[in-house]
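Standup notes, structure subgroup. Blocker cleared on the NDP input:
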Amino acid sequence: MFDALYLEKTDAGFTAKRRSMADDELTAATPDADVTLRVEYSALNYKDALALTNRSPVVRRWPMVPGIDGAGVVEESSHAGFAKGDRVILNGWGVGETHWGCLAQRARLRGDWLVAMPTALDSRRAMSIGTAGYTAMLCVMMLERQGVAPDQGEVLVTGAAGGVGSVAIALLAKLGFRVVASTGRAAEEAYLRELGAAEIVDRATLSAPGKPLQKERWAGVVDAVGSHTLANACAQTRYRGTVAACGLAQGMDFPATVAPFILRGVRLIGVDSVMCPIEDRRAAWTRLANELDREALDRITQVVGLDDALRVAPEMLAGHVRGRTAVDVNR
Ligand code: NDP
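Run returned:
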């Protein structure tokens, strides 16, 4: 038996609870899995918060064990790439959405989805990074692939005090960029500066409708917010600059014009972590292990237990959670 969070939809409505579960139930629900993982840590991401509160249709199969992220030790494997005792990381691939996830002490997964844990990381730190941090690294890699470099100008990070934003600031500052952090939480200025932000802007300056072309400022942008914020970020991006768009905290809409793209050659790059190819994942995790400052990571992370995840989820959607939330599934 093991403990898991369990989401159910019945005639009585939606329920989310912690319950104990038999291994047979997990095996029956995951017939295509070839690796059994003893999960040590999971994480609470924005998407997990949506699933735990049933706020948007993240879960597409019921009942569901949530948790899009997991890290732990392989207990059993018939996959050629992994053996008992290996430490691994799982992010995305529909886990916690269509396949039972990692907000549980045990998970059954496909070996093709797993990344070997870099030696410099452990399960707690890997889940302190989680999908949000790995997505931040994918955004940084996208900017670099388009040739964005510190000598070309400032980089804007939106949703700065959230999970993606906090890790993006730490990574970009370490790489030598002048990072400008956009936040709605003025009280977090000291936190953002400690992570490496050189300047803080009030997110209200970006979140209202703006002109199609504005004063050129950003060499690059990491946007976790979408909507008018993304449109304004594009309108303020310098000639041939790059905007990496990964989130929708303000909204899914994109009320923009093509002006920045056709008149300034601005590049808008979409970043998806869920189905991202394994080579990019391995590259991102290797870089996160080597480049993300451990102290910064510990500073941005709160560790909670399985039950706490249910309590923290609505706070996260209300924008009240700072940085990252790792989940100790044995607590
Ligand atoms: P968090 O909840 O940790 O952070 C989101 C941040 O966005 C908040 O902290 C807040 O920052 C800002 N924000 C919240 N509401 C608004 C609003 N109405 N207008 C403007 N800004 C707002 O989430 P994550 O950082 O984990 O994720 C951020 C986004 O990225 C989410 O939309 C998530 O779904 C998406 N995402 C996408 C992935 C992908 O594969 N493409 C992977 C991971 C995340 P502040 O308080 O500083 O203003």
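Discussed briefly. The CA atoms of residues 60 and 98 lie 5 Å apart.
Next: hand off to the docking folks.
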